[in-house]
Amino acid sequence: MVSDVALRQLEYLVALAREKHFGRAAQACFASQSTLSVGLRNLERQLGVTIARRGHRFQGFTAEGECVVGWAARILAERDALRIDLLRMKSGLSATVRIGAIPTAVPAVSALTTAWTAAHPEVRTRIEALPSREIDRRLADFDLDVGLTYLDADRTGDDVLPLYRESYLLLTGADEAVARRGRVSWSEIPELRLCALTRGMQNRRIVDGALSAAGAAARVEVETDTIGALYAHLATGQWSAVIAHTWMRAFGVLAGMRAVPITGSGPRPLVGLVLGGSGPASYVARAYLEAVERAGVAAELDAGEADHEGMPDPADTNAQPTVDSSDAEKTA
């Protein structure tokens, strides 16, 4: 009977869906592999369907199994939401909000965390850098509460909070001609030795699209999937890069370099918060959105792209680069 199904069995199933390996799923549940296997077979017997395809190793789920996995994730998420609501009734909101952020938006997350913890001092935050498609999938699977990602024009509603439009600068050596001149066009950028994010990342596709629209193509010598690795290469002084304005929030302007405005019309993609809709930890996610909105974080992050007080004056070759965290808040 379905009424005999235990939450522990659903935990086994969701762990198996996540780990895709019986042994690792058992470890994640702090159970032996035999205990997990027995629990899953009992679940199949109680529901009257085959859930997992088995061989020498886990081979995936049947169509019925995929359905059960979805319901199991939802049921466990609702259980967690119930616990959080009851905890809040006792002592105020105390929970961990799970955020998935596109890598280029991670430098902006600290502004969100500051607003969140100011509103709810007992809360905790877990941040993962993820591709936009993975954020959408994990929101749907209730593995995340909130996503920080690029927003399509048709993505609106109560579950969406636009934050800022990403703008771009060229970070280049102070001795480069474009740095001394204090401006650069998209068409001039390929003349420099460049490092950039990998082609599979949406930010890279946006930058490549802007270069293509200007009749140019990037001559990228170094590709990486992390902003940290990109900045490590920039620090050598050998390469330049197109950066999002919010990156300056975390990294500022490196010594010996200049952040040069890119002239002409260019992309201004919208970045914002999205929720997973009704379901898991929905109260926590909604509270997070409300805290960020009340704190005016959008105005902070979307301050004009020319507002970089930490950017040395390109005309002053003796200027020492400074870092002002208030000037680095604009993209992702």
Automatic annotation (TrEMBL):
It holds the Pfam family HTH_1. One of its GO terms (molecular function) is DNA-binding transcription factor activity. Residues 302-332 are annotated as: Disordered. PROSITE patterns: HTH_LYSR. GO terms for cellular component: cytosol. Residues 5-62 form the HTH lysR-type domain. InterPro entries: HTH-type_LysR_regulators, LysR_HTH_N, LysR_subst-bd, WH-like_DNA-bd_sf, WH_DNA-bd_sf. Keywords: DNA-binding, Transcription, Transcription regulation. Gene3D superfamilies: 3.40.190.290, Winged helix-like DNA-binding domain superfamily/Winged helix DNA-binding domain. It comes from the Bacteria. Belongs to the LysR transcriptional regulatory family. PANTHER family: BLR3139 PROTEIN, HTH-TYPE TRANSCRIPTIONAL REGULATOR YBHD. This is Hydrogen peroxide-inducible genes activator. It comes from Pseudonocardia autotrophica. The gene is oxyR_4.
